[in-house]
Amino acid sequence: MITLDAVTKTYSSEVAIGPVSVEIARGGITALVGPNGAGKSTVLTMIGRLLGADEGSIEVGGHDIATTRSRTLATVLSILRQENHFVTRLTVRQLVGFGRFPHSRGRLTAEDERHIDAAIDFLDLADLQDRYLDQLSGGQRQRAYVAMVLAQDTEYVLLDEPLNNLDMQHAVQMMRQLRRAADELGRTVVVVLHDVNFAAHYADRILAMQDGQVVEHGAPREIMTDEVLTRVFHTEVQVIEGPHGPLAVYY
Amino acid sequence: MSPQSSPASPATVPATRPVEGAPRSRARETRPDGRRGRRRRLGLLVGLAVLAVAASVGVLTWNNPMTVGSEGFWLIAQMRVETLVSVAVVAVAQGAATVAFQTATHNRILTPSIMGFESLYTAVQTGAVFLFGIAGATMVVGLPQFLLQAVLMVAFASALYGWLLSGRFSNMHLMLLVGVVIGGGLGSLSTFMQRLLTPSEFDVLTARMFGSIANAESAYLPYALPAVLVVAAVLWLRGRRLDVVALGADAATSLGLNHRREVMLILLMVSVLMAMSTSLVGPMTFLGFLAATLTYQLFDTPSHRLLLPAAGLVAYTILTVAYFLLRHVFYAQGAVTIIVELIGGGVFLIVLMRKGRL
Questions:
Q1: Is the pLDDT of residue B5 over 60?
Q2: Is this complex scored with an ipTM above 0.90?
Q3: Which residues, including other chains, have CB under 8 Å from residue B223's CB and lie 6 or more apart?
Q4: Which of residues 171-230 of B touch A (CB under 8 A)?
């Protein structure tokens, strides 16, 4: 379980996130949605201890992230940002191998190799594993980074807009793979999504943010209503019944 | 795949299951540094080592006026050994420092030399002559002065990094920019002071300022040698951490590394290495950049366990070959940097053109 207690982050006197108090249950996929600047990514990076909170406390799986050693946390949670400084002369397999660093400190054991193989197969990267990162398309590179995060073998996986720059096919593939990671591997996935329809279909819980506050938190059915979405996104939204569940139409 | 389906068993976290039918041999053969790449890199290392040894032997024996094997021959050779040791210390320091610096700062253009380290050295030397005349040139020579200068350079670097990488700045690009500006400013200050010197003072200063292997301050070697060896060894031991640092701050933190502390530590070690090298032979602006870039191009690996020693070897080879050419072929001992920049720059451009990337 991820627990945020009165967490705030102040950028300036006008721009502040929080105080956010919310509990994200263990297991399944939780999607963070909301308009630009609502603070989704800030909250996610604070949970992933990439950004320090100004006030309040955050606990992930019982570990207070401010006081727990970063090395210990790395075996509990992993986080992937949207833009990654990528080292050009790194192969996919080498990158995925870095996911094992918290466990083996860079000296890969046979067990690490098994984890790497499993993560590579999980994201269908077997054919690409010896390619260099700069020879890949944006979507393939994204998959390679997700494979690294999965190889880290943490219970909690945080992803900041993993669908960015992905076309329809790859976005759907990515969400299916995350769904499998949650269902088959028992991971707790927290993901920032822009497209509320993706969130509605693939997530177990939706956490809607607005102006630095969590305004809604619940199952997709509860969030996917005209009233809630219109209020959260400041846009006229109509929810219709699609072939696979509710569908938000906003144009 | 219903979205509402709860995960299989949230209480237990099964590890990523090894997929059946994925033979372990596949992992071995397709390891990042596959057998071919490994053999190529090994060949490169051996080739470089042979070249380095040949140049070293050349420096030791060429133009030795005594007959081979006589007592005098060995005496002269022994005197030249000191030069080679200085070269080795400088090469290891510059090579390792540049690779580590570029990894810590996520750039492959700027080097510690450009970041004000060497202009600080120049400014100190020039300032001494400017203030105290020719007597000043001798004032900055000597063991206490060497240590003082080294401490000064390390303190300068830690202050710059500490100030710019922590607190409300914490911005790598800002630090690089400030470093370059300070470097440029100190350089201009030195030039300005040099303008005001008398010709004889200027002459004395110029003789000291050129990066010169031939008049390396061998009296400092007993201190510089162990310092460089220890720091380079520590860097190598932390090589795997450097590999992770190279992934960027966010990824490194996610993998459990205290990225900022790691970067500060690396930069501190870099400043020690640079202080030793500069105190020993003076500014070597281009050497580190050249050695590091050639190493990236030739070895093509992200592993710092290999990159760090390889950069040292490349720097040593460049320096000994340049020194041999200057001293024994062109009879123009002195500014080795000239050859390094001329030939080294050429080689660098050719390699860059052929590969088409940095």
A1: no
A2: no
A3: B143, B146, B147
A4: none
What is the arithmetic mean of pLDDT over B280-304? Answer: 85
Cα three-residue angle A101-B261-A133, rounded to 5 degrees: 45
- CB-CB contact of A153 with B18 (8 Å): no
Residue A107: closest C-alpha in chain B: B240
Q: Which residue of B has its CA nearest to A86?
A: B247
Range list of H helices, chain A: 40-47, 70-73, 92-98, 101-104, 110-122, 138-151, 168-184, 196-202, 220-223, 226-233
Tens digits of residue pLDDT in B325-335: 877 777 665 56
Rounded-to-integer distance, Cα A182 and Cα A24, Å: 14
> Which one, of B227, B232, B249, B223, lies nearest residue B100 by Cα?
B232
pLDDT digits (tens, 9 = 90+) for B233-269: 999 999 999 999 988 888 888 888 888 888 888 988 9
Domain residue spans in chain B? Answer: 63-355
Q: Does B37 touch chain A (CB under 8 A)?
A: no
Q: Tell me, what DSSP letter sits at residue B212?
A: B
Q: Does B356 touch chain A (CB under 8 A)?
A: no
Q: Which residue in B251, B258, B301 is closest to A84 by CB distance?
A: B251
Residues of B with CB below 8 A from A27's CB? Answer: 6-7, 10
Contact B40/A at CB under 8 A? no
Task: Report the CATH fold assignment for B63-355.
Answer: ABC transporter involved in vitamin B12 uptake, BtuC (1.10.3470)
Check B243 against A106: CB less than 8 A apart: yes
Contact between B4 and A107 using a beta-carbon 8 Å cutoff: no
Domains, chain A, in order of start with CATH, read 2-76+154-249 (3.40.50.300), 84-153 (no CATH)
Using a CB–CB cutoff of 8 Å, tell me whether B25 touches chain A: no
From A27, A94, A129, residue closest to B302, measured CB to CB: A94
Compute the 3-state secondary structure of chain A and give helix, strand, coil in percent, each to the nearest 5.
Answer: 35, 30, 35
Tell me whether residues B4 and A219 touch, CB distance under 8 A: yes
Burial class (CB in 10 A: 0-12, 13-18, 19+), A161: buried
Amino acid at B36: R
Beta-carbon pairs below 8 A across chains A and B: 154
* Contact by Cβ (8 Å): A51, A224: no
Separation in Å, CA of A24 to nearest CA in chain B: 13
Q: Which pLDDT score, from 0 to 100, does residue B201 have?
A: 83
A116 or B215, higher pLDDT: A116
The answer to whether the beta carbons of residues A163 and A198 sit under 8 Å apart is yes
B24 contacts in chain A (CB < 8 Å)? 110, 113-114
Tell me the sheet residues that pair with A24.
A2
Residue from B281, B338, B349 nearest B84 by CA: B281
